Amino acid sequence: MEDEEAEVNLKIKKAYCPPMVVEENPCLEYLKYIIFPWFHEFKVERGPDNGGEKTFNNIEELVADFESGQLHPGDLKPALSKALNKILQPVRDHFKNDPAAK
What we know:
Layout: H1 5-14, H2 26-39, E1 42-44, E2 54-56, H3 59-68, H4 73-97
Antiparallel strand pairs: 1-2
Helix pairs in contact: 1-4, 2-4
């Protein structure tokens, strides 16, 4: 909860997330239990050579692309970090701006 943006990015970058493996994949668990319930969608920004930007509307759609190899961990992880950091930013701001919270 108190990790800075760079720390979250690094932790997700190092996270276990083998290509096309869905079972016991912590990145997909974050998406299933945190990101989709929070945002109701998940946007992955990729270059045009890698399929371009795509918005997933549910975990099943994302899992299908991940399992088939159409969505690579190298594209999923930065988008996951961005979503997690968006959720955590108000918490960071609260502790930074409220002397009583520190």
